[in-house]
Amino acid sequence: MVSTRVAVPGRRRVARRVGRYVLLAAVAVVFVWPFLFLLSTALKSATQDVFSFPPSLVPRPPVITWLRDAWTEIPFPRYLLNSVLYVLGGVPLFVLVSALTAYPLARMRFRGRTVMFFVFLSTMFVPTELMIIPRFLVVNQIGLTNNYAGVILPGVLSAFGIFLLRQSFAAVPHELAEAARLDGCGEWRVFWNVMLPVVRPSLAIAAIFGFIFVWNDFIWPLVVLSSDAKFPIALGVAYLSGISGTDARTLSAGTVISLIPVVVFFIILQRHVLEGAKGAVKG
Amino acid sequence: MGDALLREPSAVLVEDTVPRGRSPRRPATGRRRGGGTRPYVPYLFLLPGIALFGVFFAWPAVLAVETAFTNYSIVNPTRWVGLGNFTALWHDAEFHGAIVHSFIVMVGLLPFSVIIPIALATLVNRAVRGIQFFRALYFLPVVTSMVAVAVAWNYVFDDRGVLNWILERLHVTDGPIHFLLDQHWALASVIVVEGWKGVGTYMMIFLAGLQSISGDLHEAAQLDGAGAWQRFSRITLPLLRPYIAVAVTIELVNAMQVFTSVYVLTQGGPGGHTETAGYFVWSKAFQHFQLGYASASGIVIWVILVVLALVNYRITNRGEAQPW
Lengths: 283, 324
What we know:
Chain A is an all-alpha fold.
């Protein structure tokens, strides 16, 4: 990335520019080193010391045995499939419920609107970690422990999704909805056929964050699942690291496998992810 | 979804939307056509949300309070114990330790939520080629799971890991530091991992803040002879103030619930030196099966958090017109 253009006229400006990239790259090392080392460990052969001093990033030669081992040592394909199921079940529900809740809060005037607003806002100030016990008791009472629905449902309602979409709905020009109403659309058709398509970019951002959350969620599945046949991938990796005597290379390989989907997803959609992280602030 | 990461940007929304919610300037279209709209329509839309709120927030909240006054556990028959759990917590040194550790985490994470992300946001707030790539790299840890991050950081912290190597090369240390096993270092190590993983979110918050500042201000100051540092401290920082308030609020909530990093890095060890409030609740409930006791501790922690959030709100919202 560092610009190597030869400095002819504005030598100082070029030097400054190079300096900036050097700084950017140096900071980047801090953020990617742990992941790079993880990847390199997963590819190091059995004869290469993982804990060489100084630490080495280059696998000589790179081997894929450990990736294969991790795949078979624990039921990795099963865990991956579970995570995919949690995403497929949870994310659409999350986006739909967020949109349904956000729409009237943004576009309708009704009795109790302010109360409703604060009710949904309050969910933000209850730390998940403190809710796990009573939520576990509830899920236990309705018989959803160790059940896919029990993993998915508690995460569906989130202040993040609601307030992200509320802002998008509020920004839609009201002539649009009005025109649809004059054409005889009911409120549902206005919502479904007019409003939802307009806020599609925000729906996408909500879906992206939903995916990241579901894929990485740890504490809730840990508490609610008793059989490892339903483990998501994050629990699978923790399980692998908990098996005493798991080789560092195998553990790294398993972790790398768990990271691939979310990292690839992030690389493709990073612009939207970053806009989502920022856009919510700008309003 | 209730995750910390997701909660973050939404906390930001509050500032902007609360006043708007009170005095909606936009015509709300639902009831505009006089009696034409059926008044129950908004509630139909809200129904799924309200149902989920009832089942997964309101009901658990009631249960939590109820359970906190019992000795509910897997083994004992449940018995009402009044304030017994709370008085026990009052004398429980382990619980005090957990609260203290959480406060240390809270303070320790502040630089990672304010100072460092402001520096990073300043660094990436330039329209140069490839800047998006660097922003993405700094944000990468945010989107990865804490479990994976912990596995990766185990190598960094290893006796023969890169951190010890750097320290030895710089002759700061003689032998390796056992970052995760030494009681003086373990909590600091957890803080570093938590901070490192979350800093990208705060960076984006402050980047939004920086981009909201008009370039004219800086230009005018520059014409008046203000240097770069002066412009930063007299213009940028005061204008970032609301964003700092938001970042600190988010940080408080997140710090109080640090759990996964402890679970995967140290399991609360060595000797309970990294046991945080969140970890205490979990271990009492799901390792010792004292659900009543754990619920009571959860409520105490929640009250502490609310008090802290209110104090923070009072401090950061006091005298908006005051100079920095």
